[in-house]
Amino acid sequence: MMMKPRYLAVAVGLILSSAAQGADISASAIEARFNAMEKRLQQAESRAAKAEARATQAEQQVKQLETRTASNEQQTRQVAKTAEITQQQTADVAKRTETLASNTKSSDSDNSGFKFTGYARSGVIMNDSGTSTESGPYVTPAGQTGGAVGRLGNENNTYVEVNLEHNQTMASGATSRYKVMLADGQRSYNDWTGATSDLNIRQAFVELGSLPTFTGPWKDTTLWAGKRFDRDNFDIHFLDSDIIFLAGTGGGIYDVKWSENLKSNFSLYGRNFDDLDDNNNSNDDTRIENYIVTANNYAGPFQWMVSGLRAKNNQDRENTGTQGVTNAADTGFHTMLAYHGDSFYGLREGTSTTALLYGHGLGAEVKALGSDGHLTDDASTVRLATYGITPLSKNWSIAPAILAQQSKDRYVSGDDYQWLTFNTRLIQQITENFELAYEGSYQYMDLDSQGYKDNNNVKGGFYKLTFAPTFKVGDISDMLSRPEIRFFASYMDWSHKLDSYSSSDSFGTDGFTSGGQWNFGIQMETWF
């Protein structure tokens, strides 16, 4: 067996070492040791070769990482440069946009530009003989003092409102709003009704809002001036009766915010009464102007309204009754406490509104505030109004309402007008576009006019029942969604004594006396 020189040297060393120690080592033992040593040396060389390979591979990976790092640094510099360019471009765009906004009168597409809204109702109504009939939400004797009854299947007029608005939002954030309303109402069924038209401009006003120079409680308030309905009027639609209706020509400010939950509106309205004639005034006819100063305050869902009224020279107006002449008032006040609920009286889902109103003197016309110049100094009126809307089930909804009023010394000393109305409308959904509407109304009245306008003292009850199949395209579950077209049949009757209340009243006229009346017709109603 040939041995490598280095192995031979090691072997010789070992032999000599063993000989020096005096060991007796055989040739076979020496050969075995040589083989074991050679094996260990080969393993060591293999491990060294592998380590050298891994080191080479690691060196290559380091070089590759250095290459990628250099590439990333270059890309980062390029991205940073691009971002710098983009930022500059963005700044340029923002500057151009700001310049454009400053030269544009309106910049909010939702709040700016022209807007068209409206309301209309129109239809035909007849009795069971196929002839014209008396009707209307104020058809009863109590209607002369605001005693409304259910309107469904009980209207015979065409009434139209057309509203045109123009809104602007300035670069400063300030807003402006111009609105004009045209309205017409009449009972003619003809296509051309110019001779009997009541076409009128009912509103024409301007609002200025969010003025940047207004701070504190005045921030985000809205100034207005012109002829208008007050923004916060509200009504019982199913009776066609406002709960409060403040309107006229004047000016004011909305949304003065004292705290997070307390705000106020202030206004001055002017209205005109009919002129005094020569029989009541030795001078020439006099135009009587009535001024109404109002503070309308809101705390959460509560509303408290306080108003003062003055109409100089109106005290010269004379009202005649069985006990002589009573002069009209030239001052008055009015107040209202209301609750606007977001549930059905706290019992279930829906909405509800309740208001208690009181007025004295010129404020004794508590609904259409400032509209009646014949009220006396001692006139006093209390009115309660409440209604709600709630779903009863998937296909049924209900809207009950109560309206009650007592007015004393209203037009002449000692008179007393009392009435109470219950009204309920039920809606039954049949399909997505068809429903059945049911309405029941009852009104009791006790009217002691003390001979004013030759009216007689009467008391008694009135009731009306209506069935109205209705088609609509809006949300069928929403009782107030419109438009809708309805067919209707109404039956009404009242106490016989009510026929004798007044010669100018609907009750007691030819063909419209107690004993039961049927009305039939078709009507459309829409708003948007």
Q: Would you kindly provide a brief summary of this structure?
A:
Keywords: Cell outer membrane, Ion transport, Membrane, Porin, Signal, Transmembrane, Transmembrane beta strand, Transport. With 528 residues, the protein is α+β, with helices and mostly antiparallel strands.
Explain how this protein is built:
It is built from two helices and 22 strands. The protein has helices at 5-21, 27-102, and strands at residues 113-127, 158-169, 175-186, 200-209, 222-229, 234-236, 241-244, 247-259, 262-276, 286-299, 302-310, 318-321, 324-327, 331-341, 351-361, 380-391, 396-408, 416-431, 434-448, 458-472, 484-494, 517-527. Residues 1-5, 18-24 and 99-109 have low confidence and may be disordered. This is Porin. Residues 66-91, 99-113 have a biased composition (Polar residues). Pfam families: LamB, Sugarporin_N.
Draw up the topology in text:
Elements: H1 5-21, H2 27-102, E1 113-127, E2 158-169, E3 175-186, E4 200-209, E5 222-229, E6 234-236, E7 241-244, E8 247-259, E9 262-276, E10 286-299, E11 302-310, E12 318-321, E13 324-327, E14 331-341, E15 351-361, E16 380-391, E17 396-408, E18 416-431, E19 434-448, E20 458-472, E21 484-494, E22 517-527
Antiparallel strand pairs: 1-2, 1-22, 2-3, 3-4, 4-5, 5-8, 6-7, 8-9, 9-10, 10-11, 11-14, 12-13, 14-15, 15-16, 16-17, 17-18, 18-19, 19-20, 20-21, 21-22
Membrane topology: Multi-pass membrane protein
InterPro entries: G_neg_Bact_CarbUptk_Porin, LamB-type_porin_N_dom, Porin_LamB, Porin_LamB_sf
Keywords: Cell outer membrane, Ion transport, Membrane, Porin, Signal, Transmembrane, Transmembrane beta strand, Transport
